[in-house]
Amino acid sequence: NAGVTQTPKFRILKIGQSMTLQCTQDMNHNYMYWYRQDPGMGLKLIYYSVGAGITDKGEVPNGYNVSRSTTEDFPLRLELAAPSQTSVYFCASSPPRTGGGRTFFGQGTRLTVV
Amino acid sequence: GNSVTQMEGPVTLSEEAFLTINCTYTATGYPSLFWYVQYPGEGLQLLLKATKADDKGSNKGFEATYRKETTSFHLEKGSVQVSDSAVYFCALENTNTGNQFYFGTGTSLTVIP
User: Fold this and answer.
1) Which of A31, A43, A106 faces B98 most closely, judged by CB atoms?
2) Closest B-chain CA to A58
3) Nearest CA to CA, how far is A108 from chain B (Å)?
4) Are B36 and B30 within 8 A, CB to CB?
5) Across the strands, what pairs with B76?
6) Dihedral (C-alpha) A47, B39, B10, A10: value to the nearest 10 degrees?
7) What angle do CA A103, A107, A110 make, to 5 degrees?
8) Which distant-in-sequence residues (6+ apart) come within 8 Å of B16 by Cβ?
9) Which residues of B touch A7 (CB under 8 A)?
10) Mind listing the pLDDT tens digit for each residue in A34-74?
């Protein structure tokens, strides 16, 4: 039972480069999320999705894009990396309207933009 | 809106000391409240939760009570161990907004032998 799997675990990007952070879950969860965690801060929601084909912006969406073509996968795209995007990124998934802590988090991707 | 305010750290305690990490929240509706723990180099793990007022969540010796009257969810442990060294996040989940989580800034705990 893998849960939420993120790849890669670490990445260094140069300013202006692009990359995709991968996230997949095997729990058949409808809801998926991308958060970023800056040093000394809590997690901030970037984008979320309530089902395949549906995505919506969270608190800090600028500089990112997402897609949700399948229930399992929710990739996060950085088109033009900037130093401000240096952060740890967490993907998460949950059933709809859990109200009880059935959200599962991935291990995180540590991204450095230089 | 929804927000979580958490006691700032870092916190350093001796083994077997009593731990309290304060957490207060603002929310619309009736959120669920959580404590997550993040060990060095790892992702977030759910430590405990409470889904309604006066509920007490507990796990691994940690406890927190959902206090609606004071909008608080303070984390406590009677006797900490070195293995409890980690960052602790208070969070709320509001089903009114698509199960979005709102996190506090985290409190780093170091327990010394």
Assistant:
1) A31
2) B100
3) 6
4) no
5) B20, B63
6) -50
7) 125
8) B79, B80, B81
9) none
10) 999 987 778 899 999 989 999 999 989 999 999 999 999 99
